[in-house]
Fold this sequence. Notes:
Elements: E1 8-17, E2 20-24, E3 30-34, E4 55-63, E5 69-72, H1 123-126, H2 129-155
Parallel strand pairs: 3-5
Antiparallel strand pairs: 1-2, 1-4, 2-3, 4-5
Amino acid sequence: MAIEVGSIVEGVVTGITNFGAFVELPEKKVGLVHISEVADEYVRDVHDFLEENQKIKVKVLSIDEKGKIGLSIKALEDKKAPHHDHVGNAGNHPGFHSSPRPQGGRGPRDFRRSGGGRFGGNPRMNASFEDKLSKFLKDSDERLTDLRRKTDSKRGGRGSRRD
């Protein structure tokens, strides 16, 4: 079977790096699944999704003039993930995680809202545009106030400037 752009082939993961995984394909050819093509969600570490000697199916994305083969696992996944509506539906987005944030406060946040809310059930479903806008402005104002407080405390209080 010849390896061509667009074909789906089975291979074995032979090595994992911080930028992707090398896969041995039929005819002893080797291709690379770049980290951005491993999954349809954010991939911090390829080891979380693949392991060496694992058999996987991949789609051939490209073959350059030097014979380097670009592969994708993501291109094989069903595109049945929920689509965003105009209001925004962060709760169903595959990139949002419910796991706690790592120490240091950096990392993915969980933007999903728990049920119940001011409007009962899902607040985005029952709220009018004006209510949503009002809540957004209130939340934004609170965040800005918090940010100003933190910034002022780092500078030594209001009105003080370094000379």
